[in-house]
Design brief:
TIM Barrel, alpha/beta, 6-stranded parallel β-sheet, 2 domains, NODB_dom, 12% strand, globular, 321 residues, 13 helices, two-stranded parallel sheet, hydrolase activity, acting on carbon-nitrogen (but not peptide) bonds
């Protein structure tokens, strides 16, 4: 179901009081995996504001809501239990992608307070090299090029430029960003990116019971990356996490996570190194007898928007497939 139609119907259900009744009775069964990227005040960010899932106050409300209404599970539960075990459960798992510093500064204390163990998929190269992500660099260039323009004009320019990046082959990535920097008269972003966690932060989170998964070394879209590079991206990111954090990395998430961002071949390669892998295009994971359960395409829903939208998402996630 398209999001505008879904939102309209779900809002109507909320106004009639049906959502609360549905939550009490349970409208779905299975495993709902929620994905966050950044948490905080997007308006203060000079990089990509589109990766902000929610603000600090809303995140706290969302975690309290999940803690109160659902069974919150961790990755060990997911990889060890058989698929059929989930058909009668209403389980939720919290995940984060990439390794943004506000995961530590804002989200981590809230998770600790509520006793929730989240799963963090970390791109190891961002932590090691402090390099800027291509989407953040594009946003930075567009904000400078269109300084003084309306927010809508800036957002449109960012979206258009990001879409252009998606359409080109891997070999042209750097040339594309160079051209964008030339046209914007900004050049490329220089120096270390300030948005990433460091290994000490991650070690503190690991010691507090947070879990970690692989998310490649450099965050490429794997289907647009030469197959000869897959092994490095899959294994080196995992090796760095295990080396620095002294943890067992059992799972992986495909960068971007849309259906066109991984393939049967990539899933097979991933299965050589991990016990499960996660996509990011919505839906509930259900036991085999109740529907879809693919251990190397475990669905996730990217969180965004207000607390009202969050309640709708967690009440009717079966319509988000």
């Amino acid at each position: 179901m398209k999001w505008p139609t879904y939102r309209k119907l779900a809002k109507r259900a909320e106004s009639l009081g049906l959502n609360r009744l549905v939550r009490l009775m349970g409208s779905w069964r299975g495993l709902l995996v929620l994905t966050y990227h950044r948490v905080g005040d997007a308006e203060c960010c000079e990089f990509d504001r589109g990766v902000y899932s929610t603000d600090e106050a809303s995140f706290a409300q969302q975690m309290e809501f999940i803690h109160r209404h659902f069974e919150v599970v961790g990755i060990d539960d997911v990889v060890r239990r058989p698929a059929d075990d989930w058909k009668k459960r209403q389980a939720v798992m919290i995940t984060f992608d990439d390794g943004y510093v506000d995961n530590y500064e804002i989200a981590f204390p809230i998770l600790q307070r509520l006793g929730i163990s989240a799963l963090f998929f970390v791109t190891s190269g961002f932590i090691d090299r402090r390099s800027i992500a291509w989407w953040d660099e594009i946003a930075w260039m567009m904000r400078k090029q269109y300084a003084g323009s309306s927010q809508n004009e800036i957002d449109d320019a960012i979206v258009q430029t990001v879409e252009g990046y998606y359409e080109i082959p891997e070999a042209e990535f750097e040339d594309y960003l160079n051209r964008v920097g030339d046209v914007a008269q900004t050049g490329r972003f220089e120096g270390a990116s300030p948005v990433w966690m460091n290994w000490d932060m991650l070690r503190e989170m690991a010691a507090a019971g947070m879990s970690f998964g692989g998310h490649t070394v450099s965050h490429p879209i794997l289907t647009r990356t030469h197959s000869g590079n897959w092994e490095h991206e899959l294994t080196e990111g995992r090796r760095r996490l295990e080396e620095e954090l002294d943890v067992d990395v059992q799972v992986f998430s495909y960068p971007v996570g849309n259906p066109d961002c991984f393939s049967v071949d990539i899933k097979q390669q991933t299965a050589k190194h991990y016990r499960a892998a996660f996509s990011c295009y919505g839906g509930v994971n259900q036991g085999k007898s109740a529907g879809s359960w693919d251990r190397f395409d475990l669905r996730r829903w990217p969180v965004f928007g207000s607390m009202k939208q969050f309640r709708l998402t967690t009440t009717w996630p079966q319509f988000l497939n």
